[in-house]
């Protein structure tokens, strides 16, 4: 049976860390940065995320960034500012 993947924005109510999309599979979580499209962590290995899933998520970045900026106006992606 193939595992189900879930994409979510942020586990916390406040965006404290990097602007990212979380990709989850079972108990594992990968953070894909909304500012540059790169994986933010070395573990779990980014190579475990299917390329097709990364393409789907990154193709939705304009919408995801708009939603992030609306939800977290103090840490907007569109401003070009760095995460802090």
Question: Could you walk me through the main structural features you see in this protein, from its secondary elements to its overall organization?
Answer:
The structure is a single chain. The chain has 84 residues and is α+β, with helices and mostly antiparallel strands. The chain has one domain. It has 2 helices and 3 strands, in the order βββαα. Strands 1-2-3 form a 3-stranded antiparallel sheet, with no helix packed on it. β2 and β3 form a beta hairpin. It is globular, with a radius of gyration of 13 Å.
Structural descriptors:
84 residues, 3-stranded antiparallel sheet, 24% helix, alpha+beta, single chain
Can you summarize this structure?
With 84 residues, this protein is of the alpha+beta class. It has helices spanning 51-59, 61-71, and strands at residues 5-8, 20-25, 28-33.
Record the SSE blueprint.
Elements: E1 5-8, E2 20-25, E3 28-33, H1 51-59, H2 61-71
Antiparallel strand pairs: 1-2, 2-3
Low-confidence stretches: none
Helix content: 10-25%
The biggest sheet, with number of strands, parallel, antiparallel or mixed sense and barrel status, is: 3 strands, antiparallel
Q: Please, how many helices? A: 2
Average pLDDT taken over every residue: 83
Report the sheet-strand fraction. Answer: 15-25%
Strand order of the largest sheet: 1-2-3
**Overall number of strands:** 3
Rg value = 13 Å
Provide the number of structural domains. 1
Derived structural class: alpha+beta
Sketch the topology as an H/E string, one letter per element: EEEHH
Shape: globular
Separation of the first and last Cα atoms: 40 Å
